[in-house]
Amino acid sequence: MKPFCRDTWVEVDLDAIRANVETFRRHLPRQTGIMAVVKADGYGHGAVQAGREALAGGADSLAVAMLDEALVLRKAGIEAPLLVLGYTPLDSLAEAVRWDIQLTAYHPEWVQSAHAQLAERKPASKPLEIHLKVDTGMGRIGTQSIPELLAMADRLNTSAVLRWKGIFTHFACADEEDTTHVQSQHDCFQEMLQALTAAGYELPQVHCCNSAAAIRFPEWGYDTIRLGISLYGLYPSPYLKERQDVSLVPALQLKTRISHVKRAAKPFTVSYGATYTASPGEVVASLPIGYADGFSRSLSNRGFALHNGRRVAIIGRVCMDQTMLRIDEGNASVGDEVILYGRQGEEEISLDEVAALLGTINYEIPCMLNYRIPRVYRKNREIVDYAHALAGKR
Ligand SMILES: Cc1ncc(COP(=O)(O)O)c(C=O)c1O
Q1: How far away, in angstroms, is 98 Cα from ligand 1 center?
Q2: pLDDT at residue 392 tops 90
Q3: Shortest-distance Cα residue to atom 8 of ligand 1
Q4: CA dihedral 49, 218, 86, 39 (to 10 degrees)
């Protein structure tokens, strides 16, 4: 039995996720691994299911933004290496050690405090694995200083409770046509790596590429890439979509079913603010989805949906839980399937189209779809799993 009662759901094609990993496997040098980035609940696709599928398809590790996200994956039984890319407060180190989760560090004082805290534990625990983060031009977390980097490397290499597992940086503009910034970041990263080798350190796992850099500069893959948006079949920017260096398969669709149909006998206004007036003869269909699901209110009177393989307009304001459509041709009935994001017949509403309409990037669109929407997982077209936070089912 499906563990939800609602007629609105996200469908995730696990075969697409697998195909995208395989595409990158072919695109990258043989020695370069794939770390699948499943933060933000797998960019809205479901971290556990996306992570498992990525690993099955050839990824060798997973990354998330925060320790709580990593714990979800471990507790779901995922045994692969897990890296937290963001900041971890020092009072959470014991959890990271207990669940064998790799952390990111970028400040010598944090590394020293982590060493001191774990060295005091009795009995001594297994070492906590650390990736050092260097800021080569992103301007957020990460050290910009070679002396700080050397101090952290020294502390890690002489600690019995910490282990130096990796070093990485993150690119700010790898998706843009102009490669000046990404090139300068890569040069800076190489300088930092050279400073370490010149000081006699053996480099641990080295990584710098996000999806965009992995697409354009596979030769910068080093030991692994961190594959986020393109794992889910999306291009990091319209520019890279146009270039088609790799062919990706989008994994997510947002679907719903009509909950009410009205044919206007006389003019009536639709939704809050009465911003749309249906003319006599017009057919108005209500959908059980709204901005409280992460379906943006900015789509009011602007967005589209697919019904019976045709594009239909969203009319009036998107409400908290409901949205209305104008059905221009053909019949509409309660229970008809409507695609909000995805493909029906020859028509498609891509996440790129919705992002452009909303003045944002495609990353944000699936991330907005929240805990109220059940996820349905398909493989070989068959439903193989569900997740629904409201029903406590991950
Ligand atoms: C540090 C880090 N690495 C990798 C990624 C994955 O990037 P993308 O989704 O562009 O592949 C992110 C995502 O924001 C990130 O913050």
Answers
A1: 26
A2: no
A3: 228
A4: -20
